[in-house]
Amino acid sequence: MLLQVEAVSRYFKLARGRMLHAVDEVSFNVDGGEIVGIVGESGSGKSTLGRLLVGLGSPNSGQIRYNGTVLPREYSARDRLRMASEIQMIFQDTRGSLSPRLTAVEVVAEGLIIRGENRLNAHNTARSWLAKVGLDHSLAERYPHELSGGQRQRLGIARALAVEPQLLVCDEPVSALDVSVQAQIINLLYEISQSQNLAMVFIAHDLSLVQLLCDRVVVMYMGKVMEQGDAATVFRQPGHPYTQALVSSSPQVRQIEDSTAQNHQPIPGEVQAPINPVAACRFADRCSKAEAKCHSQPPPMIALSEQQSVACHLV
Ligand code: SF4
What we know:
Layout: E1 3-13, E2 19-30, E3 35-39, H1 46-53, E4 61-66, E5 69-70, H2 77-84, E6 87-90, H3 94-97, H4 104-114, H5 119-132, H6 149-162, E7 167-171, H7 179-196, E8 199-203, H8 207-213, E9 216-221, E10 224-230, H9 231-236, H10 241-248, H11 251-256, E11 301-305, E12 308-311
Parallel strand pairs: 3-8, 3-9, 6-7, 7-8
Antiparallel strand pairs: 1-2, 1-4, 4-5, 9-10, 10-12, 11-12
Helix pairs in contact: 4-5, 4-6, 5-6, 6-7
Bound molecules: iron/sulfur cluster.
Iron/sulfur cluster (SF4) binds next to loops.
């Protein structure tokens, strides 16, 4: 197993002794070459989880194993350098994540030079990666602010892949792009994952993209995993009331897998921040099937099959 996330929690202290449980005992695995989607509404803890996977923050409890080795809580400069060539991240905010003082070719070459390659080789490799992600050679000397949103995201992908990682964490990589550009970037990520046997954690709130791209899916709500399993199974027969509500409120998903066919139905209520959460199902206040037990006991994760697990008292 390439990545094992084992009961990982990340809390943030707030004023007056309150605690935000952003990620709460989350467990899942990623095999080599596999694409795992993390879905859920804003505030579900997806991005915090993604940042933990690349060492941007450390878990309060639980552990993350990469190739069988537990990742350190605190990264030394040496750890960081080693991990940067194994696990890379693509961010939603391409403007904030690309240095404005480096040209496109320098952005991609930087990681290779830090790793010890000489400047000439690094620039040659960088140019070949710019070509692989579909950026014309005429753009190599441009600065990030001179590129379009789609071109900047391609540049971010080239930068991440040039150091040949085994795992790529993508945090909402296309949500700021036009629909036509989204399709190009999704196709590019899929082609690269296939040709390089690259594993991916794909964080998105757009279920239709996750359905198209991912082998498996993890559904999060208020920091907790509600359901996880094989993507085709979960989208065809969502087992958790929250997943059912997400799928039925996503018209694009229904058009492809229409098993929960209903009219477009937004989920009632809003996601609450998981601050000092009580021992209960976190979805109870919005769940149309909630019973008394749901408000007083957290549901265990139950395997429906080898392909699907659900945390719900009604299963
Ligand atoms: Fe709904 Fe209860 Fe299941 Fe939670 S445990 S999803 S509240 S039925």
